[in-house]
């Protein structure tokens, strides 16, 4: 596969990152059903009257980007489905092997500088000067998302209701009453929210997990925005968590990825990326 511009290839926006100025960086993945080609595609200003669709990608190749994040210094860490992390840390792109043959599904740069990745191997890896080192004994479930304050305080979630909580140098594996696939976790200081398939939402206050699940809508990620908890609700669009359930805020697009920065929040799903500034919504589709 050579060109992402080929019209016969299906395209999707698999992950997004927002800057505080509203600029977006999107992982656009094209596939013919057998192989994959990914591009990190910037959108400098999605609200511009005339959007320049020919802005070149900043990185691309014959791999499937599954997630990416930015550290405190602006360096990018990009996970792929072949078990590798691509980084521009040295000023040029390099590829670091993590767990070859077992795909990565998340990579997170935590506030204390810790960089973590995990996926289908059931192992959480921490980036060190000597390479990516495992932090836990492998679990049987895939790990889908990680969030937290730092190396000694974070939560990872995954398939079949998996929750792994880092507590100091040890681990807690709380049993929550669901076998749903958990797609997202959000750190709220000492509290954590996790969400997933079939409307699963649980909140921890540091000691116990409270069931907040509503309905049957599949939930894919959460962010705090303007003192509300916004949720990517798949084909049901964007919603907000309330005491009575999930209040729909926009249902004109699919939302599988979510990010916030400054005054903005953004969603992506299928081949669409959408940004909201608290009043106006602006979108762009990759065709």
Provide structural commentary:
The protein is an all-beta fold and 287 residues long. Helix content is 0%, strand content 53%. It has no helices and 28 strands. The protein has strands spanning 10-18, 24-31, 36-43, 59-61, 65-70, 76-80, 84-87, 94-97, 104-109, 115-119, 124-128, 131-134, 143-150, 153-158, 163-167, 170-172, 182-188, 191-196, 201-204, 209-211, 221-225, 228-232, 238-242, 245-250, 257-261, 264-269, 272-276, 281-285. It has a four-stranded antiparallel beta sheet, with no helix packed on it. It has a four-stranded antiparallel beta sheet with strand order 5-6-7-8, with no helix packed on it. Strands 9-10-11-12 form a four-stranded antiparallel beta sheet, with no helix packed on it. Strand 11 (124-128) and strand 12 form a beta hairpin. The mean pLDDT is 93.
